[in-house]
Structure formats: structure tokens, C-alpha cells
Amino acid sequence: MPRPTLAQPLLSQPLLSMVAAAVLVALTAITYAQAGPRLALAVAVGALAGFALYHAAFGFTAGWRRFIREQRGAGLRAQLVLVGATTVFLIPLISYGHHLGIAAGGFVFPFGVAVIVGSFMFGLGMQLGGGCGSGTLFTVGGGSTRMVITLAFFILGGLLATHNWAFWDGLPRVEALSFAQTPLGPPGAVILTLGLLALISRATREAETARHGTLEPGRPMGSLIVGPWSLGAGTIALTAVGVLCLMVLGRPWGITSGLTLWGAQIAHQVGVPIAEWDYWRYAMGQVEASVFTNGTSVMNLGLIAGAALAACLAGRYAPKFNLSAVDVATAVIGGLLMGYGARISFGCNIGALLGGIASGSLHGWGWFLFAFLGSVVGVRLRERVGMDPPREPRVVPGALRTQS
Questions:
Q1: Which positions ≥6 away from 340 have C-beta within 8 Å?
Q2: Fewer CB in 10 Å around end: N or C, the chain?
Q3: Cross-strand partners of 112
């Protein structure tokens, strides 16, 4: 993910760092006052996520795009390691955590037409919008004005999807299936998941070496406080986020349900009759409650604040306002596609892909496949509208012939 820079920031970075830290402390204090220590801890977990995402530039969107365009797979492989490491912890904790006093459930949802369509929309939208669920939030925190537009329409897209929820919920699907609840059991589900991830990782390595002859060297680790971080360090920190979220909130890390809730709260305040919509009919208590009493919401707010703190400490917090028409249009379209797609497919790259696969759910794998296909289309569209330069034709060794 590109980190926003500007030659002359409005305030000094040390002062901005103090402001960001103060905002994070205030956010934690307000959450503690309104919802108690558990959700205050969730703010801290979200802040760790934002801090790690920013310093490691850990974005699903850019990692997928680099592999699609260049067959460079370091970012994609880091994501696979994150999913695998999270799985090693989550499936056992979900299955056996009650013996340790941990009451937790996974993200296991049906897989069908809605997930196929929604995940494809999300994959397409995240390439146009420039960030996935987590990527949108951490780049907003990092000072990207364009991603503020993406986030606003992400929220709107999710709200619109809840208006059409009855239609999507009625489409053909396979009922929710967790591999941990099949004869494989939790240990077999972990082994199966790690094996599939290893096969995908190997395929990316083979594709990269076939194209470039060697794997791209990894990014070195910089300062723990001011960054940049290696992808490995980011993977470790985000694995910890996933485990801590499960222990604090009793379920895997999610993002988009909180964004959709924000949209519903805004709509309700301005008089939109969302109480008549099937999706919200029995959830108006959440809509009418404070934003600081919802676990996903406070983690999202913590994530934004943590990324802002990381950007200030790195000396990179400096919003840019010279957006082109293409910047604005693709942010709007990408945000709408992501918000709508995430809601009808039970989440984004964090809630559906990471949380779903790490819970042993079939729908997580289906989401991964169709979101990646959507990203392939999205990358092509980025090239068409000038967001990325055209790719150079691939030269196959031995294909050139001298003319006589």
C-alpha cells in the first residue's frame, strides 16, 4: 500500500504523534466508560492491528495486484502464512477453548450464489478503491484523503446491501460447513488447511521463479517504533491480533459488520426507516446503542488510530488533497462494490477470508477464490483507466528469432 507523503505537513510530526496518541487514549477511555474493560481492551487490539498494518504495509490488495501483474508473490505468501498461523491457534481455541474458560465461536457461514457474487464484487472493488477492508482503514488512519472517500462509500454500499438482504439470503447455497466438525475433526481441519495453503504458496513460488528466475528478496526490518517492518514482523503481529480478538470478543477478527452498522446508525439518525428492513428488524438495539458499545466498531476505531500513530511516528502523516477525477470516481465505485459485496458474502479479506478459513469454514475458501478472480478483472480495469501503467509484453525465452 502506498503511504501518503507531502513535502510540507501542516504540523510537526512529533506534535502529530502526541495528538494521535492522545486520541487513542481518549478512545480507550470513552470505550471503558461506556462498555467496560473488555471493549477497552478491544480498542488496544485494534490499535495494534493498525500499527502493524501501516508499518508492514500489509495490504491484501497490493499483494494480489503485484502477483497478477508481475508474478511477484511475497505479499501474497505473507498473507497465506498469516492465514495458516491464525488457523493453528483459532481452530483449537474454538473447539477446545471451553476447557480453558474461553468461550469462542468461528465465522462459519453458508456458501452459495450470494458469496460468489459478493466476493467477486469485493475483489473487483478493492482494486479500484485501492484497499481491502483492513487496507481501507489503515490508509485512512495513515492520512489518505482518497481512502476517506472509499471508506464513506464502503459504508454506503454495506447499508444498501442490507436493504436487499432478503433477496440475497434467498438464493441457492450450501449450508454452513466447518471442516473441524467433519470426521477430520479439529486436528485434521488444521492439517488440511495448512496443506492447501502450502500448495498455493508453492504455486506462487513456481510462477515467480518461472517469470523472474529468482524470488524477490524480502524487505528488511527497520525500527519497531518508526518502521518500516518486514512482512514477517507484520505477519507475527497480525496473528497475535487474530488470537487476541478471539479471546477478547469470543469470535474471529472482523471489520465490515462494524462499517455497515455505522451506516445504519447514520441512516437511522436522518430518518431512513431501516427498522422496516429485514436485516435490521431484530437488530435495532445495536443501531440505537452507542458506537462505543460494539466490539467490531471499537476495534475499527482503534485500528484507524493505531495506523495514524504509526504514520506520525514514521514522519509520513501528511494528507494530499490534489485528487484527480479518476481518483475520486474509482474511490466511489470501489467503495460501493466492496461495501455491498462484503455484506452479502459475510465479510471481507479479514472476516471472510482470514476469519473464515481460520475457523475451518468452506465459505472462506470460496470467498478467497472468487475475490481473487474479481481482483484479476479489477487489475485489468485499473490499467484501462490509467491507474497503473500498461504491462510490458512478456518475452518467452527462445521465442525471438533473427530474420534472414
A1: 118, 121, 157, 158, 160, 161
A2: C
A3: 173
Beta strands per DSSP E along 63-159: 111-112
CA distances from 143 to 114, 137, 282, 296, 310 (A): 34, 10, 36, 22, 11
The C-alpha R_g of the chain, in whole angstroms, comes to: 21
What pLDDT was estimated at residue 391?
74
Hunting for cell 477511555 — which residue is that?
29
Helix (H) or strand (E) holding 38: helix 37-55
Measured distance CA(162)–CA(337) in Å, rounded: 14
| Residue type, position 347, single letter | G
Cell numbers at residue 10, please?
Answer: 501542516
Instruction: Choose among 196, 165, 127: nearest CA to 345.
Output: 165
Phi, psi of 352, rounded to the nearest 5 degrees: -90, -50
Q: Mean per-residue pLDDT for 360-388?
A: 96
Identify the bridge partners of residue 381 per DSSP, sorted by sequence position: none
Report which secondary-structure segment, H or E, holds 174: strand 173-174
Q: What angle do CA 350, 19, 315 make, to 5 degrees?
A: 75
Residue 289 has pLDDT above 50, yes or no: yes
Q: Do residues 229 and 52 touch, judged by C-beta distance below 8 A?
A: yes
In three-state secondary structure terms, 394 is coil
Residue where the block lists cell 488512519: 141
Q: Are 142 and 53 in contact (CB under 8 A)?
A: no
How many Cβ atoms from other residues are within 10 Å of residue 346's Cβ?
Answer: 27
Asked whether the beta carbons of 198 and 383 are under 8 A apart, the reply is: no
Q: Are 333 and 125 in contact (CB under 8 A)?
A: yes
Using the structure block, give the residue that is written with the C-alpha cell 534472414: 404
- What is the DSSP-derived secondary structure letter of residue 278? T
Backbone dihedral region of 183: left (phi > 0), alpha (psi from -120 to 50 degrees) or beta? alpha
pLDDT in tens, 369-380: 999 999 999 999
How is residue 172 written as a grid cell?
A: 441457492
CA-to-CA distance for 41 and 132, rounded, in angstroms?
24
Q: What pTM was computed for the model?
A: 0.91
